[in-house]
Fold this protein.
Amino acid sequence: MSDIFNLGLITTIIRISTPLAFAALGGLLTFKAGILNIAMDGFMLVAAFVAITIANLTGSLVWAVFAAVAGAMLLAFLFGYFNLKFRADIFIAGIAIGMLASGLTAVLLKGLLGEAGVFASNKIPSFPQIRIPFVESVPVLSQIVSGHTVLVYLAYLLTPVISFVIYRTKWGLRVRAVGENPDATASMGINVFRLKMQTVVLSGFFCGLGGAYLSLDYVSLFSRDMTSDRGLIALAAIFFAQGDQLRTVAVTLLFGAAQALSVRLQQSAGIAPQLLQVIPYVVTMIALIIVGVQVWSRRKRVAAFE
Amino acid sequence: MSDPQNTTIAAAALRRSTGSILRTIGLEIARPAAAVALALVIGAVVIRVMGDDPFLAYSTLFSGAFSGTANIVATLQNTTPLLFTGLAVGFAFRSNVANIGVEGQMLFGALAAAIVGYYVRGLPGFIHLPLAVAAAMLAGAIWAFIPAILKSKLRINELVVCLMLNPIALLLTGWISSYPLKAPGPTNKTYDILPTAQFHQFSDLAQFNTGFILAVVLLVLFWLIENRTKKGYEWKLIGQNPVFARYGGINVQSSIVQVFLVSGMIAGLAGAEQALGVYRAFYNGFSPGYGFDGIAVAMLAKFNPLATAYSALLLGALNSGGIVMQMMTSVTRDLIKVLEAVIILLLAADFAIGSRRRVRRERRGLPSRKPEGRIHP
């Protein structure tokens, strides 16, 4: 058992959950604004591709991350514009954006980088590990908290920031108001379109960071459809936590743990990979049903009262 | 052509001359055609950016789809699953039931067909094949029942549920075909089905089979159901105007479940055709996303069963020609996915907003934008 449950597992969970956490932060903003953002997978995939292409071209991680974020935000803008301006159904638009991202990155992978399935290069630099001075001397804590890369810290440090923005700023209040009742918000003279658009583009920003992390940091390569439903799982985490940001990040860590365990259990216990990979989806289904039953019984009580 | 107000437009159109009816039909075709054309232009730009020749890529694509018997047969073979999935998606969408879980329903249909096709023995072909097909329909319906019951009883958004059920179906069928029911050998597949459960393949050129005829019959059947039967009218009405449908005495919630089940059955048939006609077994991950292609097919056809034949042929030809294009040029067949995505985006959008058409419509007292929360184009 010690080769499955050890300190290394916690480090793995933190690293594996980072892209989920990024996507969840972006998804939370759109969730609060009343937008079901199923296009996040596409944003991340495009970001991952742009990141590796630019890193290969310039050898600069900073430029690569910038370009990745810009690419994801551009796609998010497209998604938002079609949904909010042209009234395309959010799910249809989301599926189309996902297909676009998947197809386009695959075409360009062959056309620009000359690879059919996986692209890796020794020209791509890696992120330096950050050693935290005081923590470094504490035995267990040093292994868990210290020695990650800048994007990992960013993901978890942005969580309270987003929490603050949503609950303690005027902008956050407006976002929540739009999510609760767009018509009432519009009657207050607030530009609903612009506000929703801002949350969508910001979700692109976070997914951009997540995508860049995925291809430059988590692994140093790009492969077709490498996001493997992470955007969807992040959305599932939000649903599961019912839109509470701290709980959302906790759930992403839980899903990350399931993923990390699935890799290890597969190696040592011989459990079929599919049965472990299916866990986040099944958990989400159960969560959806629980929430649905709660809402249903509340409605029933209200109906009985009236 | 979906919201109740449009019925008034249709009535007004009838009152006008035949010429304007023809013009209306022209507009009906014009928009999908424009979407396809624009998608091809965007695809050409992408090819150009990569430093390849768009003209060469597209001509290879076209000849790969249509030149010579072998290519035409391959195109028809690629069209067949899209006929089923396009119909399954379109049938549901028309009732405003957003069944995007067709992919998962198809996978379970294929698995059920393969299981009955191998494990049920000693039956003559005229019983065994229908039995396997029925099993596929049942499996598709069962998988569709989950989002159906959650939507109708608990009002849980069927799209979110379907989004989760698709990967679950992929992983579960993948597990079943890789572990408990795996046939010996290097590939993850079930045992080959018995000859008595096979759809007949027309030629040795490709796996084009009698499932195609079943699909075409189904399209006509559904056109008749939707336009000539009471049940079909009810199913259509709950999509067009659920409030009116309820006042008209239709049980909307149970109709939603019915639509989901029927859509799931059609999706199951798509799986049956693949398992019994093309592969003669269940192969793990055999589908390149036929269920999602079905969304593009259905939207291009504006959810009309007969028009589905054309749009499925178009996307089938693109898929089939794309394989040749990938072999002959440096452009991969993933380009087809890009084209599909652009087509879906363009057809889902309402560009009339802010246009002269809106001003005209508002002057006539008609709504200028489509109601929110509808999937109709």
